Amino acid sequence: MSASQSPAYVVTDNQLKHYKEQGFLIVHRLYTPEECDEIIARAEGMVDGTVPMYKGNALYMEPEAVERGLVTEEKPSSEYLFKIGHEMHLTDPVFRYYAMHEKIADVLNALIGPDIKCIQSMYIDKPRNLGIGQPYHQDSHYLKTVPDTVIGVWIACDDVDVANGCLHVIPGSQGSKIYPHDVPVDVLQRKYFQEVHAARTMSEVPCILPKGSAVFFPGTMLHRSGNNVTEDRQRRAYVLHYADAHSEPGRAYSVPNPHLLVRGRQYPGCI
Fold it and tell me: Which SS3 state, helix, strand or coil, does residue 174 take?
């Protein structure tokens, strides 16, 4: 981690227009390749036990790898990792640092305002020739604020494309209602996921990203990821969710203001 201050990232008028109309914004070089490597190394340390697994987090192995007997939940392997989540931004110093990255805060300041909370973090892997994609869904089905100000930030820690399972979005769907989330059509997706079946007939766009680039999108945006069908490439991503600190929680919390303040200030009775 570097403490050096880089120039503020300025979101242009054209980028804001695209985000409002299409519902997503791609920002290149959000992290450097070296910063991505630090995130990957930290996650691999959690898997092999050399880095502590702090409270609020757990390891999940790729279900298909478990089914084939290639790995077990009791003896995890970074080769077959599916996910680490969901509170590294609160408890792990490296993941917290990158959740509070100045460039992320600069972009979020333009998209949702100056008072920013991080409400969830996930490190998601997709093993080579094995990783199963997540079907179409909306993050605001799971993460609720009042009003709904949830925004996802999907950061590629590898070069990502269609072959190794990049993110796909449905432009314009950010204005949609929250759809019913049902049992996935694909049986391989049923252990962890739910699916918005209506999205299967909609036109999608793949988000092909170089390492360190990111997609920003609101919680109402319909999005999915593909399978990793490559023989020799992982598909690792740091996925974060944020919200306007003015928002009230969609459920009761046991402690006030439980989420990580990234920039600005927090407010009584809010997230």
Answer: helix
> How many domains would you assign to the chain?
1
Measured CA to CA, the distance from residue 15 to residue 110 in angstroms comes to 10
**Residue 271 resides in a domain:** no
Name the residue among 157, 119, 151 with its Cα closest to residue 262: 119
78 is in which domain, residue-wise? Answer: 13-263
Alpha carbons 37 and 214: distance in angstroms, whole number: 15
Question: What secondary structure does DSSP assign to 40-93, as a single string?
Answer: HHHHHHHHHTSS---TT-EEEE-HHHHHTTS--SSS--GGGEEEEEE-HHHH-H
Q: Where are the alpha helices (DSSP H) in the chain?
A: 13-22, 33-48, 63-67, 88-91, 93-99, 102-112
CA distance 155 to 8: 18
The pTM of the full predicted model, rounded to 2 decimals, is 0.96
pLDDT block averages, 10 residues each, the chain of length 271: 75 98 98 98 98 95 95 96 97 98 98 98 96 97 97 98 98 97 96 96 98 98 98 98 96 86 96 95
269 within some domain: no
210: its two tokens:
């170089």
Q: What is the CATH number of the domain that holds 135?
A: 2.60.120.620
Say how many C-beta atoms besides its own lie within 10 A of residue 71's C-beta: 19
